[in-house]
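Write out the bound-state structure for adenosine monophosphate.
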Amino acid sequence: MRTVRTIRELREALRPARAGTIGFVPTMGALHEGHLSLVRAARRANDTVVLSIFVNPTQFTEAADLEAYPRDQARDLRLAEEAGVDVVFAPDAEEMYPAGFATVVSVGGSITETLEAEGRGRGHFDGMATVVAKLLLAVLPDKAYFGAKDAQQAVVVRRLVADLNIPVAIDVCETSREADGLARSSRNVRLGPDERRRAAAIPQALRLVERLAREGETRPAELRTAASRILRENGIEEEYLAFVDPDTLERVPAVDRPTLVAVAARVGGVRLIDNVRLAQGEADR
Ligand code: AMP
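---
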């Protein structure tokens, strides 16, 4: 495995790999099993696997969150190598945003105005879209891998790639979960033992929604009330729990069609997100 810090070195390292296929997994490091599941998917389908590690300051809308974001590059490099990564791209902020940097990639429309944008501000998506565009253009992979946990991110990335004609296929892989259902996240290490236990109420709430919907409940308000109760009983502060169209992210009036149930909640000081996709009505379409 090779680790490179500059775009010039990255391009150099990938020149021979262009004869085959390149799979790319962008991350902010603090690697966990969720990231590694993306690496494995990339490994299965490509000749060369590139992983990037970059805690992108421009997508953080809270300075304290950026400050507290876990970083352990020695461990990350070890895990990446074990998982079969060929090239790690780990630039510093000056490499990605040198003096004079002035371009922002801003994906417009409802997909960047709702959900995460409501809590974190749409600046989050400008920062994310800009860095993803830069990373995709630096690596120029055949396929890039993203996690379903960040469902809105995947929608925004697909839009960005289509709109800018970036020649890369986007593969969204299923959410990797702990034994109690909690979605794996780099932020989970910041949960205290009691918070970690209570955090399992987030996937429990989503599973309850799934069950009630399967049993025929189609009213978002009813489903939301049941899920919110579980969160409240576990001392989890709900930021949003929304029933949206999986493509447009606009609120659905009834769960009689494919629906993404997306939740953001705070457990103690840690903000977590998760989602589940309900396939309702898919068979009738
Ligand atoms: P991050 O380092 O949090 O920016 O995540 C890097 C990539 O890993 C993103 O595409 C995430 O959606 C994905 N990812 C994070 N957590 C998980 C998970 N639990 N399961 C699957 N993919 C994940």
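---
The pocket of adenosine monophosphate is lined by residues 27-28, 34-35, 37-38, 146-147, 149-150, 173, 175-176, 183-186 (CB under 6 Å).
The chain has a mean pLDDT of 96.
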